[in-house]
Model the fold of this input.
Amino acid sequence: MPHLNLSPTRLHAQQTALARIRQLSCAGFDVARLLHEVNGIVCRVVPNGARAIESPFWFTVDPESHLVTSIYGQGCDVDPSDYMRWELLADDFMKTADVVQNPRGVQTLHEVTDGRPERSRIYVEVMVPHGMAQELLVALRTPNGENWGTTRLNRAPGDPMFSGHEISFMAAAAPLIAEGVRRGLLVGEATDPERPDAPGLVVLAPDGEVESVSPGAEEWFSRLPDDDGRLDGVPTSVLAAAAGALHDAERRGAGGASMARVPMKDGRWAVVQAAVMGANGDSKVTVIIQSAHPDRIAPLLMSIYGLTDREQEVTRLVLRGGSTTELAKDLGLSPHTVQQHLKSIFEKTDVNSRGELVAKVYFDCYAKRTHDNRERIRTEQFIRGGPKAFASGGGRSCDDPRPIAQG
Done:
């Protein structure tokens, strides 16, 4: 993280904040609690001054589609459908798609409007009436490039502009928060399984003794290779991941993590991820086991719209903002062939453009997820990630966005 001529006191405060965020990201918290804890840290380093919103807004996204799966903000409840209609259908600045495609992963409203925020519809219609004059948007992107969310920070008229060192701090904090969000979603899925292929979770004491296992953990244990190193039925790969996380915690002094790919008995691969729940090596360790290549989108695209394998690949790339040229390059096809696939996809999904396709997939497959997560946050339950289908047959869903697109 660039120091940008920070005073020793401020530099120490930022380094301490980053160390604490890393520790929280490894603590095994569900996403809402993680963000609640991170809020306080972020607000001390990068204050929010808007009249109606005194802390950041946080959004989780599906890393496969970049579509929003939950919205979390302290003191202000956002209706997911209202927000997503703006996000997906309005012609405006500072969208999720913009920042997740931005190599820096950070942008300000003043930057993208060339210093004229009044060019933004949401600035005029929402921000100004609610006492907001500035906005900083940050992608929560892991070091390997997966986007797990975004955060929006706001300030009131007359507040200082977001400074270079504040933006630099958020850029440094974002990968740590992203890892915490990713782990939080996995912990929630393992603790309260929704699907047969939900991850497995085991909590180990520092000496390797099993303290607890999730409902599906033993099934995952049975899929991992047999060997002579199992302790209390726990595979060596799980114990090794826990040991690696403890070693990382001792080295860093602020949380620790490790991850390994492990071949399963059926020839597929699993990912074994461990994180130290405390601040040092003398702490419990959570280990999560999941498929190396979970795929939730393809089955929905097939079952709801009847898309072929190639059409599913094209749709995935459209959801992530790919142009025709980029799609052709990624898929090894000619631009003409890509256009033919898009024509077929539009016919099957009953839309007329890429934007309508993205909105269609969201409102058919993700809208129920964001609404359900809104209620889960309110009732202090684990939130869910990924899509959730609630329409079928390729027809219009009960929350169809096209009238708004035409209006």
